[in-house]
Amino acid sequence: MPTIARLPDLLISQIAAGEVVERPASVLKELLENSLDAGSKAIQVHLEEGGVKLIRITDDGCGIAKDELALALTRHATSKISTLDDLECVGTLGFRGEALASVASVARLSITSRERGASHAWKLKGEPDAEPEPAALMAGTVVEMRDLYFNTPARRKFLKSESTEFAHCADAVRRLALTRPDVAISLTHNGRNLFQLAPADAPRRIADILGDDFLGAARSVEAGAGALSLVGFAIDPTRATEAKDGQYVFVNGRFVRDKIISHALREAYRDVLHGSRQPAVCLFVNVDPALVDVNVHPAKTEVRFRDSRAMHQFVFHAIQRTLAAPVQAAAAPTLVEREATTVNRQNQPNLEYAPPLRHQGSLGVAEPAAAAYLAFARAAQLVTPSSAGPATTVQFQPSFPVDRAPQEVPLGDSNDSPPPDSAGPPLGYALAQLHGIYILAQNARGLILIDMHAAHERILYEKLKTAFDNRQIATQALLIPAVFSADPLDIAAVEEHAEALADLGFQIAPLGPNQLGVRAVPALLQSGDPAALAKSLIAELREHGITQLATARRNELLATMACHGAVRARRQLTVPEMNALLRQMEETERAGQCNHGRPTWTELTLDQLDKLFLRGQ
Fold first, then answer.
1. What is the distance between the alpha carbons of residues 92 and 88, in angstroms, rounded to a whole number?
2. Which helix (H) or strand (E) element contains residue 43?
3. Most buried residue, 230, 508, 579, 602, by most Cβ within 10 Å?
4. For the chain, which domains are there?
5. How far, CA to CA in Å, does 359 sit from each of 37, 92, 93, 157, 511?
6. Contact of 95 with 80, CB cutoff 8 Å
7. pLDDT, tens digit (0-9, with 9 covering 90-100), for 209-222
8. Contacts by 387-393 with C-beta closer than 8 Å and gap 24+?
9. Would the pTM count as exceeding 0.85?
């Protein structure tokens, strides 16, 4: 029988390296986290051959004392936790004390460090029985790793190409740079300087890394509830793409891939994304460190929340409220104005950053980025009160008229014209129809184009959801029943679920062995085709059953009903009818997208029109 023996320390470290050191990017992440925890304000990253041949991190942090250099290379040695209470309330990025020892076991590692106030620096090589040697260094620490997996070729063959490994390294640098905009970070690969990020405010850092296009196409997010807070940006649904790597979520300053938060984002965007487009976000979630466990994965990219359901609901409602903001609240500032504000900040106040302490109240290490973002957002008016009312009080019809004679809608001193000294409502006032499909309107900033079917579809959809939830779907009886052919299974389904159909506002009854008649429809859909509505509803009923339609597929059913009931293309509308539609859009949640995620309106500013016609050039 084989005997039980203790493994050598080197083999133990190499086994641990298999968990911690997956590729060069894993080493880079751990070393950068150490630099940030050391209070660095400037970090330089030098890579060669994708980080396989060389990773050198130079920082200006607090440094390491000579007597602690050797200890830093041993397993489970750290200055960041000392008791069980510290482990349950982690406020730093690194804390395991395994990274340096694991790296030293599979690569040639050296550390040069000068503690603040020391006469000179000391250098220690990660070799057995090595002793610190005097070295030259102004301040901080230089960690140098060479020849990753030189002594374990079996693992080295699993590494990818140089370009692939470098791409992973660059992504790791960008993620950490997002969390600490107050830290200057530069990246060099094979002697070529890839980027150099100067200290900046949080939105500027986000624009530097994710691009001005992302910031210009995103909506500002701010929410708080007890020990939870959330700030950042979420992409406008109409500007989303099919890219699946656009979610940057940070919990207490730590980049995570969390299933709870990812599911909350998908649910919040479910009604507003078109096709296979994906939500792109840059969010900073701050929670009391005692309420989140970051010690569940060696790479620390996964976390466990004490109350995962509360976190899911918090993120879901925060994003949903942001996306559901009425047009009048989202129209100030415009996307173009926001982009201009992002690029030009000469007159913005200087933002101060808090030092990277281990514990900063309930915000943890994420506070610098979160606080900086909030300060800038409020100064630049990116975060506006959701209760802000429209600039002009406009009376409009309670429901959009499509089958009755147009009613006069008072919109000012002259019919359908804006008051002389008013900026007017966000979507302005209607001018005309284009090919019976689009509405042309003018507001204070320029020209508005509205897809009238898509816009009316969203309005009906939101009204149907509210009425369904409140069990107040009004019914409109038809003077003459709408009769259509049906097979026996359709007739059986109608007879079996007559009560459930009545709850949806429909009265459908058999009129013969192969005929059904629609006697009443929901009042909101009275302008639609009753027979088409009934056929669609019966098809859904037969496929999914009434239980699914009332719960899991409720929104899909109501969206289908709204699509059939919305005003169709080629219908000629009067100017008062068009203005009534615009006013209802301004009061409807998620009015920027139809039920299928398509945009309902777009804006061309005067500046854009001037550029189009080369005015002033």
1. 12
2. strand 42-48
3. 508
4. 9-195 (3.30.565.10), 202-379 (3.30.230.10), 392-617 (3.30.1370.100)
5. 11, 8, 11, 41, 73
6. yes
7. 999 989 888 999 99
8. 388/328, 388/329, 388/332, 389/328, 390/328, 390/425, 390/426, 390/586, 391/422, 391/423, 391/424, 391/425, 392/418, 392/419, 392/422, 392/423, 392/424, 392/425
9. no
